[in-house]
Amino acid sequence: MIKQIIKHSVYDPTKTQALSPLLTTMAHEIGSNNYMNQLHAIIGRQDQTKLLTSIECPTLLLAGKNDKVIPIDCAQQMAMDIKNAELFYIEECGHMAMLEQPKIINQILSGWL
Hints:
The protein contains five helices and two strands, in the order ααβαβαα. The protein is mainly α.
């Protein structure tokens, strides 16, 4: 299961291979009970998108252009709903943006802050 999650979370197959040991270690450290708790929380949570319009502080949204977990249209909708949101797309990036493109993420964060 861990291999499938990693496969769908990282965009570039060469980075998947390089990041796989770290992501596998992280998954084992979290443990199956915590993973199950997370899944139950996600499945059972109520839709909170209506609350996005109440956010008034400057908000940075980062989206991997190739994210299979949270598609771009979700990030675009969030950016439209949050008044002071800035949306940045990270090219050649899946769901593990901080591990896939750390330099770009740091550049965006530095410029935004």
